[in-house]
Amino acid sequence: MLSTSLLSYTIPTTSTAAKSNPKPKFHHRHSTIKMSLNNPPPQNPNPNLLKTLTNLLWGKSLPPQLLISTVRSTWSATWHLMMSQLAPSDPTGIYTRPTSQFRSNLTQFSRQKQSTTTLHLYVGLPCPWAHRTLIVRALKGLEDAVPVSIAAPGMDGSWEFKDNQDKVILDRDRLVPGLDNVNGCRTLREVYKLRRGGYDGRSTVPMLWDSAKKEVVCNESYDIIELFNSGLNGLARNSDLDLSPPELKKEIDEWNRIIYPAINNGVYRCGFAQSQEAYDIAVNELFSRLDMLDDHLSGSRYLCGERMTLADICLFTTLIRFDIVYNVLFKCTKKKLIECPNLHGYMRDIYQTPKVAGTCNLEAIMDGYYKILFPLNPGDIRPTIPSACEHKALAEPHRRESLALGGKDVKMNS
Q: What's the Cα-to-Cα distance from 266 to each of 98, 119, 132, 282, 290, rounded to whole Å?
């Protein structure tokens, strides 16, 4: 399972500066870029002047074909260049997600005496991979044992920390971006570079940090949620909760093999496809799996029966984003989630689980996609959240408590 967030893209200018001068000039160059991006945009030229100029050139008709074709060709070439950096693809245009660079050894924590920990979690609210770690952390009652710092995507796509104390005060019941609470860094890239030997790779969330050793422990989301589920029970307030019990481990792994490539990563394969063929393959596989899951959940409260597991958490973080982001921005348009009655009820069921809704900042999620993924939304306009996706609608009764244990038989390899 991969945890690399695609909102962690950094523009080539920053990367080049980092390689040539890893310390002082990188920070100076990065801050310069950030300042220029955060300055108010220049005012548009006088609209009357533009109108006069276009009337002189081609009157009231459309721009000439040569101009249209030139602009289209230029934009297409620029789009492919940006997408090659944002979302690496194979020769056919199929998006290929980079692998996580730091994997966790769970046994090293289970063997330690657990009276305290120096672990610190870094996340970004738009990222579904980071979201799963926040949910398991909350369900297990690890909020005090593993503090969190929440970054927000900057205008260049990198993760930044900002002083949002006013928002923190107003939004006491949900998570909001803020400062780096352990290292005091301005960006997540700076945190990664604090580790022994430095770091020049992609600075992704989620990331688990050892504040005593100044080291990256893990940036693979599934490793982190497994650790939170069973590796820190000595510190968890809800240690009896097991989201991956031994008797269900094989079934959980089988569900993950279905969910990850076709759905978790499948929505990104749709949105980041760089050819029609790549998109068609991804979107057909996505909705084939969603239909299969909707059928299965007609007779089963959760994927593995009456017990919520890590597989459900992994599916939920994609479903909660589906109608507000993926259906629109990533062109997953065959159906909305609300048109899948069982999946939609299942999603609301998990949302209403105590502590889960507090991890779902839907405004921050939408901002993180629509305001940052410039190649997919160059107009920078964030649509209004659908009424069916607002908290009031998500809190409507789901009536799934009475579903039979086990549900329908599903061919896992289909």
A: 14, 31, 17, 6, 11
* pLDDT tens readout for residues 182-236: 999 999 999 999 999 999 988 999 999 999 999 999 999 999 999 999 999 999 9
The amino acid at 214: K
pLDDT digits (tens, 9 = 90+) for 257-309: 999 999 999 999 999 999 999 999 999 999 999 999 999 999 999 999 999 99
C-beta neighbour count of 298 within 10 angstroms: 15
Of the candidates 127, 165, 93, 46, the one whose C-alpha atom is nearest the C-alpha of residue 325 is: 127
- Measured between alpha carbons, how far is 371 from 157 in angstroms, rounded to an integer? 10
Give bridge partners of residue 160 from the DSSP assignment.
152, 187
Q: Which residues contact 365 (CB under 8 A, 6 or more apart)?
A: 125, 126, 320, 321, 324, 325
* Active site residues per annotation: 127, 268
In angstroms, the CA 3 to CA 347 distance is 21
| pTM value > 0.85 | no
- Cα–Cα distance measured from residue 305 to residue 316, given in angstroms and rounded to the nearest whole number: 16
